[in-house]
């Protein structure tokens, strides 16, 4: 995410029956055997069906996500009418139980749930705050695969974060879009809403004919019938839920291919053609440069979408299709914000945080990518930018450790700027060869998964062959301004 409108220098019943079946003991009927001398039957595993946890256990957002299951895929079908701002949804979640479940939860804010089925059988549902509590007609044993289908409708909403501002579902003059971190998904579909439970997505969006509907991944065939057009999108790589997006409205869309992969670039027609379009056209060139320093581009498509709403003040790294506020291009072409969001495709999207307190692994890396881009374009050097940020940063940045910023500073300057400075300090400590090897190995080894700061520290020490406690303690965990490296 880029929260600043300036250049940022400075994550079945059959099996249950099988598990509970009691075996028979064979006896020799030719000679009587007493009960006491008969071979003992193997113990039968007992199932302890309990309610799944109503949160995944994130230290900053304990109610986000849910426990007891792991989602493999979402099949999302929504129909949206901009005139009424109403959305009708039909979502099928395919998952596996990781505990013996009597009930389990999905995250869903607002909306009216019309029906829920588990394995195509009606299930009981109740609402507790933002939790949709589902009770299937039978317990789900550990390891069992199951499907959940939820049919719902209503007017999707938004939330406001004091640091980020409005996020979630934005209703615009010509349609709508979805964007938000750390949450946005649960505002328009039922979901296990935490990066720890990444999944693949198939999204169908039905909108009035004549409007465009953009989402993540590779576009499928369109279908128009009775004044409505259905747009199909598929993201085949695991994706954290907050990275899902919709952009519905009147867009200038440029479709092309790059290295055999589709490229989809959209700019709202609420903007005159100009700086936003030019900035989007630089997407693949920027991605190619980042590939040279981070390793292979991690997804099956490229793209970006520029949206306009006076309440949107950030850009977000939506997987394969970052969403940019029009405000970033008010002063002209802005490659820095494109670099930032594209860097997140490696660091944030492919490699996602295990818990939100490690947000610097997203934002520090994306901010440092901007420094590298400036170096690549001979506009400045990473060292010069480091020196400027080090000299001019507000004192609060030194009181806030980027690896443990606290919930209030999750999107403050420390994870971004001090996180980038931590990477530059690492670069100085290990040298360029080891540093760029660390970045590539990190992106490769953690691809499609989640990661922690401790894991990054371990990898950096393994690759460099150096003990780096003093570097990381000063730059990631300390609460005083470190000495310049």
From TrEMBL:
Residues 25-44 are annotated as: Disordered. It comes from the Bacteria. This is Aminopeptidase N. Its EC number is 3.4.11.2. PANTHER family: AMINOPEPTIDASE N, PROTEASE M1 ZINC METALLOPROTEASE. CDD domains: M1_APN_like (cd09603). Residues 31-44 have a biased composition (Low complexity). Belongs to the peptidase M1 family. Its cofactor is Zn(2+). It catalyses: Release of an N-terminal amino acid, Xaa-|-Yaa- from a peptide, amide or arylamide. Xaa is preferably Ala, but may be most amino acids including Pro (slow action). When a terminal hydrophobic residue is followed by a prolyl residue, the two may be released as an intact Xaa-Pro dipeptide. One of its GO terms (molecular function) is aminopeptidase activity. Gene3D superfamilies: Neutral Protease Domain 2, tricorn interacting facor f3 domain. The keyword Protease applies. The keyword Membrane does not apply.
